[in-house]
Amino acid sequence: MTPVFLTVDTELMWRHHCARLPLAEQVARSIEPAGVGVACQLRMLAEHGLKACFFVDPMPAAIHGVGVVRAIVEPILAAGQEVQLHLHPNWMGAAAGDGGERHGVFELVDLDRAAQQALLAKAIDWLVEAGCQRPVAFRAGSYAANDDTIDALAALGIDYDSSHNGSAHPWPSGLSLPPGRIAPVAHRGLVECPVTLIEEAPGRLRHFQICALSVGEMRAALDHAAREDHAAVTIVSHGFELANRAGTAANAVHVRRFEALCAMLAERRDVLPTTWYRDRPAMRLGQADRPLPANRLRTARRRAEQLWSNWVAEHAA
């Protein structure tokens, strides 16, 4: 079997802070935009009997307090899904209502090892204070991790990282691993679980994300992983990803993709079971798994769909 990590990066969106929206509106547009946010995803996951990991960023606690993080994680935990650690460092140094005038660095890799470890330790404390178990897995915001990040995570007792994304390599996803690495691998004291990739065109990689792949590409990637007996599949979504950028209207194409993905995973649960990091599933480390090869027709269909869906979503009320 090939374990599947279905992951949802869950965060307050910086753009809403910069727009000086009231905190309640920032939360609404980031976490529950247009009725297709986290609650909607939790409902679809439950309907299909799937496990998912919500990588939650606790850093807005730096300016809003831990209460805002607690409000985000409580529904996830109540639904029986897991919460692990996500982190966007720019919230450090920010101030409520300043429109983003003050902020910390935007990418974790712009900090040295000691500064990264201190920030990660603070984020872990906030997540635990918000009511979560101590995290065992991490994904950097924007996939911005390097080997200093991995060393810091290992020192803090984190067992898994999922920041390696070959489509964003070597920056900001800067681990010393090949861009095409998609199989889990032991790396500097923990297990790296890279984001799954497909080839968009020969030599050009695209990551397995709801807003990035069509239903046809997702189906082909899952069947490829099952057929080739991959060591794992790691899929990315976001709490806000099924809505437009403003968080004011649903993106119908993205909603259909998430629904289709849930159905496909439910149909394939015998060979592609969804799992949690906290389960510490048995994984074959270091396999030479390769991304789904490029298919010109699949890519062309997705590009046409993407143009249409983005136009419709951004022009919706």
Description:
The chain is 37% helix and 14% strand. It contains 10 helices and 10 strands. An 8-stranded mixed sheet has the order 6-7-5-4-3-2-1-10. Strands 8-9 form a two-stranded antiparallel sheet. β8 (197-201) and β9 form a beta hairpin. α3 (38-48) packs parallel to α9 (252-267). The termini are far apart. 48% of the residues are buried. The model has no long low-confidence stretch (mean pLDDT 94).
Regions with little confidence, pLDDT below 50 for 5+ residues: none
Give the proportion of residues in helices. 25-40%
| Strand runs, count | 10
Q: What's the mean pLDDT score?
A: 94
Please identify the structural class as seen in this structure.
alpha/beta
Number of helices: 10
Overall radius of gyration: 18 Å
Order of helices and strands: EHHHEHHEHEHEEEEEHEHH
**Biggest sheet: strands side by side, in what order?**
6-7-5-4-3-2-1-10
- Percent strand equals 5-15%
Spell out the key features of this protein.
14% strand, 317 residues, eight-stranded mixed beta sheet, two-stranded antiparallel ribbon, globular, alpha/beta, 37% helix, 10 strands
